[in-house]
Design brief:
Length: 285
């Protein structure tokens, strides 16, 4: 069945939604995106995703074509039109098309705005129960990972490298330290039960799930340290896990073929997943 998608003010069957070959999103990855989770037909952590979209636009001097109200209206309408119960909404804004290919930002192009729904089980996800196996691999991405651009080839390469050896995802390494996952933030839990994750900077995406998760962890009096960590420290951790809007929290059960803890999902990661989902659902719109 065809989805109804949103393109530049119109709701269209997906086969009829067309974008110019001169669109700068296509030619230069001059585009930003957001993924917002949907549970029970409602949007999770919406405020955070809307705020990060505005920040990404600002950092790239790109016109933000939609107000927060527009974004809520469009996303809600897509949920209804596609009868989406659980999954996510993908949103992309590009700098638009000047009708040719040239590097400098063109004057007066209208942004291209695309949104579509993706239906999938996010609550009863098998990987949340079984955990995931990851590899470590060099971080080949650009230096502004805090901006959520569609320039994702390095992440695709890292994930493909993981898949090719029977693993699920990759953690990226720079200067000896873990930056983050291929499309997630990375955490370890030390032997003395401290949750460790890399501090915010231009080196990582400022995860919206990360922000909510740290808030709920603090409320539950869990000990948190925002600092860099090495892959060797991760090998020796009691537990490890990732967070993102597409996964919420997934436990990591092995890294580079070394089991983490007992090699099964750890109790703290599983508890964090539950309390995060409860928190996010309570605030969903
Ligand atoms: N880090 C990277 C590189 C990502 O691509 C993502 C999500 O796509 C995240 C972290 C997690 O961010 P969020 O929790 O906002 O989904």
């Amino acid at each position: 069945m065809q989805r109804t998608v949103y393109l530049n003010g119109e709701y269209l069957p997906e086969s009829e939604a067309k974008v110019s070959i001169f669109d700068r999103g296509f030619l230069f990855a001059d585009a930003i995106y957001e993924v917002t989770a949907v549970v029970d037909g409602k949007l999770l952590d919406l405020e955070g995703h809307i705020a990060r979209l505005a920040r990404s636009c600002k950092e790239l001097a790109m016109k933000n074509p939609l107000t927060a109200e527009d974004l809520v209206t469009i996303q809600k309408k897509l949920i209804t039109l596609n009868d989406l119960k659980e999954g996510g909404i993908y949103l992309q804004v590009t700098r638009g098309s000047s009708g040719d290919r040239d590097f400098p930002y063109p004057d007066n192009t209208e942004p291209t705005v695309v949104l579509f729904t993706q239906s999938r089980a996010v609550i009863d996800s098998p990987k949340a129960k079984k955990g995931i196996k990851i590899i470590s691999t060099p971080d080949l991405r650009w230096r502004r990972r805090d901006v959520k651009t569609t320039s994702l080839l390095a992440a695709c390469m890292a994930k493909q490298a993981a898949m090719s050896v029977g693993c699920d995802d990759a953690w990226l390494i720079e200067d000896g330290f873990v930056t983050e996952g291929g499309s997630s933030n990375a955490y370890i839990i030390t032997q003395n039960n401290t949750i460790v994750t890399r501090p915010l900077s231009n080196d990582i995406l400022h995860g919206i799930t990360r922000a909510s998760l740290l808030k709920v962890a603090e409320k539950h009096n869990l000990s948190i340290e925002e600092r860099v960590f090495t892959i060797e420290e991760a090998y020796a951790a009691k537990e490890a896990f990732i967070s993102s809007a597409s996964t919420f929290i997934w436990p990591v059960i092995s890294i580079d073929d070394r089991p983490i803890g007992d090699g099964v999902p750890g109790p703290v990661a599983s508890q964090l997943r539950e309390i995060y989902i409860e928190f996010a659902k309570a605030l969903s719109v």
